[in-house]
Amino acid sequence: MRVLSGDDVRRAVPMSAAIDVVEAAFARLSDGGAVVPLRTRLEAPEREGVSLFMPARIIGGASAALGIKVVSIFPQNARDHAEPTIYALVSLFDPETGRPLAVIDGTSLTALRTGAASGVATRHMARAEAHRLAIFGAGAQALPQILAVCAVRPIDIVWIVNRSRDRATRLATRLRSEGYLGDVMIASSAAQALAAADIVCTATSAPTPLFHDADLRPGTHINAVGSYKPTMAEVPGETVARARLIVDQRAAAWAEAGELVQARAAGLIDVGHVIGEIGEVVYGPLPGRTSADQITMFKSVGNAVQDLAVGTLALAHAEGRGLGVVVSL
């Protein structure tokens, strides 16, 4: 069994490759080629924490995979233990025999596959000429979101919107260190960034919307990936109601996506407002966009097929390059 660190994952899988395998995994999810139960939550209320258990199986062919992801989110860690808020592991098993194949750092894998999902959605839903990006948030998810969008659209301006200017500045520095040559602007307000943006990525833990619906430009595409439970909503209900809405998986989105749950509770949308899953856009006739001035929105709460797809690719590349540590059970 091979153990892969976060650095191993980053060295093994470039963003462009992650986008391609996540795209294929979404297609399998929507065409019935994957089994993904709703994730199980194990609460730790005395620590304000929760652990999420996400098994999945991709059936048949070269993409066959079997595994489980475990994510623990403990917000008090930074204050009480000087530790990260989120820990995660992905375990992969041989889909033919069940033999353990790998244990992979899930934090880096999550950032990579979440960015890749936005890359897939942007590829199929944003206007072809879109070239200005606004990113809300400057945490672990922000840089992969930017890199993924840049991989599929000719982005020459990135606007960073974040409560802490210091963190926004650090993100700008990291982006430039990745070789980005366009302009990087730190916005003084959400409205300033949205006045210029063709594409918006929200990657925060905000419980309430990050911007006003009226500030969006016609034709904007939104990737909303931060909120993961019904009490959180990064995007205004009015935006959800007028957007062409595509999700990663219908059942999971209606169970966990605060933007959808809250907009439905307010009477702004019903179940039929979800046009489809991104996998249906990838493999089928469902268009991601039907007009140039349409607001489009991809809502993702995360799906374990993403982790299986990128994790399996990381393992294959790691084996070929001798990355990670091989252990015997």
What attributes does this structure have?
ornithine cyclodeaminase, domain 1, 329 residues, eight-stranded parallel β-sheet, Rossmann fold, 12 helices
What is the average per-residue confidence, as pLDDT, rounded to a whole number? 95
CATH superfamily of the largest domain: NAD(P)-binding Rossmann-like Domain
Count of DSSP strands: 16
Number of helices: 12
Order of helices and strands: EHHEEEEHEEHEHEHEHEEHEHHEHEHE
**How would you describe the shape?**
globular
- For the record, the CATH architecture of the largest domain stands as 3-Layer(aba) Sandwich
CATH topology of the largest domain: Rossmann fold
Q: Which CATH first-tier class of the largest domain would you pick?
A: Alpha Beta
Portion of residues in helices? 25-40%
Beta-strand residue percentage: 15-25%
Low confidence ranges: none
Cα-to-Cα separation, first versus last residue: 8 Å
**Major sheet details:** 8 strands, mixed
Structural class call reads: alpha/beta
Total domain count: 2
Describe the protein in words.
- With 329 residues, the protein is of the alpha/beta class.
- The chain folds into two domains: 130 residues, ornithine cyclodeaminase, domain 1, CATH 3.30.1780; 178 residues, Rossmann fold, CATH 3.40.50.
- 37% of the residues lie in helices and 24% in strands.
- The protein has twelve helices and 16 strands.
- Strands 1, 2, 3, 4, 5, 6, 7 and 16 form an eight-stranded mixed sheet that branches. It has an eight-stranded parallel sheet with strand order 10-9-8-11-12-15-13-14.
- Strand 6 and strand 7 form a beta hairpin.
- Helix 1 runs parallel beside helix 4, helix 4 packs parallel to helix 5 and helix 4 crosses helix 12.
- The radius of gyration is 19 Å and the shape is globular.
- The mean pLDDT is 95.
